[in-house]
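User: For my dataset I need records formatted as: sequence, then structure tokens, nothing else. Please produce one.
Assistant:
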Amino acid sequence: MLVSPNPQKTSVHATSESVDDYLKAILELGGSEEALVTTNALAERLGIRTPSVTGMLQKLSSERPTLVHYEKHRGVRLAPAGKRRAWELVRHHRLLERFLHDVLKYSWDEVHEEAERLEHFISERFEDRVAAILGDPEIDPHGHVIPHKYAQGMFRNEVELARWPLRTPATITSVSDRNAASLREIERLGLKPGVTVTIEDVNSSGSLCVRLPGQMDVVRMNKNLAGSIFVTATP
């Protein structure tokens, strides 16, 4: 889902890192359906006690411009101003990951934490220069789409590899960037974005046997690792 560029900069008033983290987490957890996100889900994602999350959501919902719409006992979704800021942060994060990886030669398992720290603070001028140096890239190192400036991003229609049907070819489109150890294992197994895979078997514990093109032996992985790899149907 894409929207036309809007040259008006988000007027979120000097959002703190904490507020930014809330907005981005709500965006990611709500997904393309913009579903209500529960306080428990936010607390788990952010590593914060549920009462503290409730207090922050009440505060954010009362600010002007309104950043979130909060419904007691139901959950929260982003208001337009909050959504603009959240997608701006996503663009910053993914551009920074690409810059750190391609220009500064960080490995793909190192870039997430650095980008998390920097995404709150870069100016529009810095953002524009990074994008220009990189040639306005469309994809970050983990396969995620980089939103256009002033535009709402998109959620791909991807499925976790762990949920993909047996013996049906799939193409890896992205991998989660949240766990460095998982990224190192994914790289070791050769399961980076663009690779075609077929699940040959799933055992009783949920572990997968996956075949890659041109390889005689299958790759074995646990269901947690398979849950951090996202695929779509191979054309």
